[in-house]
Amino acid sequence: MVKTIKTKRLPKDPGPAGWNEIYRDKSSFPALDKDIEVDWVIVGGGFAGLGAAKRLLQLLGSKERIAVVEARGIAQGPAGRNSGFMLDLPHELNSDTYAGSKEQDLRQIRLNREAINLAESIATQYGMDKALFSRSGKITASATQRGYRSIETYAKHLTALNEPFELLGASELKDLLGIDFYTQGLRTDKTAMIQPAGYVHSAYQGLVSEGVQVYECSPVQEMLLGDSVHTLKCANGNIKAKNVIMAVNGHIQSFGFFKQSLLHIFTYSSMTRALKPHELKALGGIDNWGVLPADPMGSTIRKISDHAGSGHRVIVRNHATLNQSMEASDGNLKDAARLQDRSFARRFPMLDGVEMEYRWGGRLCLTYNSVPAFGEIEKRVWSACCQNGLGTVKGMLSGMMAVEQAVLGQSELLSEFLKHQQPKRLPPEPFLSVGANATLRWKEWLSGIEL
User: Fold this and answer.
1) Which of 50, 132, 295, 385 could bond 450 through an S-S bridge, CB–CB 3.0 to 4.6 Å?
2) What 3 state SS string does 114-177 have?
3) Contact criterion met (CB below 8 Å) for 17 and 80
């Protein structure tokens, strides 16, 4: 008996993916233009798809055929639209200080670090430049009393977790960042910083060298789930596969799974043009840094150095909207641009007149109770979806765990990962969208100049 699943829509992300636009060594992968047969097909060419493909190679080697199929160009979707942090420490977006319970956070740290270790091994194996992947740590910083309290609480929580950190004062932050906006900070050293588009392109090139088939610009339009073989239909070719891993984050809902349980949040970013030498001199500070706001609704800021002609640039990320249609409007992007220009001007007065070259929005997927949309959803079809705002590290982790469940059945790491509830059902519309967006605007207002 065959079960037919048709996709109802494709998500739409506003603006160009800036990280992808500035990466000069982009790889090109073919679109699927023929019928193929494989043992494993991974739907989604982001971090979850990458984690799944690499774990399959580790467990199975070249014994079975593996294909990855991506709806858009590689790194044009959410994988190329994030801020480039691979966070090992707690980062609970529903919390005022990112922290959860001690037991939960200890477990999440162990899992996150396994994912980052895999990401690092990929970078090492495929010879990536440090500009694409580096264990450079990150800073959580604040400029308000409310933010100070969050940092103090976070520091106490890290102490309870036996995690090392360094508190930074205004002068130390000025030396590092070149700006005097922030007055208190907390630095940890095990976060990895990546150029997300460059990392993903290089990683998938490496997978191809190991025999994985990678196809881009080939959205899956229909799935025919059979007893022994599944058929995935794309515009110009079909894929017959014994096993399917869905690594599409919130887009899993377009296939009819996890109904009324996923929140589709867009966050927005602006990236400056390449800075000129006199502007770099006026800014000062170290070449590469990343700052997360003490208030989760504040602005995330990165400064990146020139890599292969990409230029020295500053990236500002803030503003969030709930768009259950998985489409953000031009109006959403314009609202974000206004906020980001103000945030940039507050922090970088010495760069007055520096224009933003790229602006974009990117999708997150969250559940009400911050758990993944994971597991075997049909016979030999596994979901590695819903990363709850940490698409780089939790995406990699979900892909790894889906493979371990599919191939091994059980493992020590998988047992740790599976210690979560099922996604909770969401309130009905229009109450959900009206209430959520009103709450987001209120929290942004409370964040003050942290935004």
Assistant:
1) 295
2) HHHHHHHHHHHHCCCCCCCEECCCEEEEECCHHHHHHHHHHHHHHHHCCCCCEEEEHHHHHHHH
3) yes
11, two tokens: 């998500």
Hunting for tokens 């922090």 — which residue is that? 347
Secondary structure (H, E, C), 285-311 = CCCCEEEEECCCCCCEEEEECCCCCCC
- The pTM score is 0.96
For residue 117, what are the contacts with CB-CB under 8 A and spacing of at least 6?
none
Six token digits for residue 26: 């982009």
DSSP state of 98: B
**Cα–Cα distance, 286 to 210 (Å, whole number):** 37
Do residues 114 and 397 touch, judged by C-beta distance below 8 A? yes
Please write the tens of the pLDDT for every residue from 64-74.
999 999 999 99
In sequence order, what are the beta bridge partners of 168?
185
Residues 107-162: tens digit of each pLDDT:
999 999 999 999 999 999 999 999 999 999 999 999 999 999 999 999 999 999 99
- Condensed to tens digits (0 to 9), the pLDDT of residues 286-299 reads 999 999 999 989 99
β-bridge partners, 268: 318, 361
Does the pLDDT of residue 93 top 50, yes or no? no
**Six token digits for residue 342:** 């103000």
Average pLDDT value over all residues in the chain: 95
Nearest to 266 by CA among 8, 72, 9, 13: 13
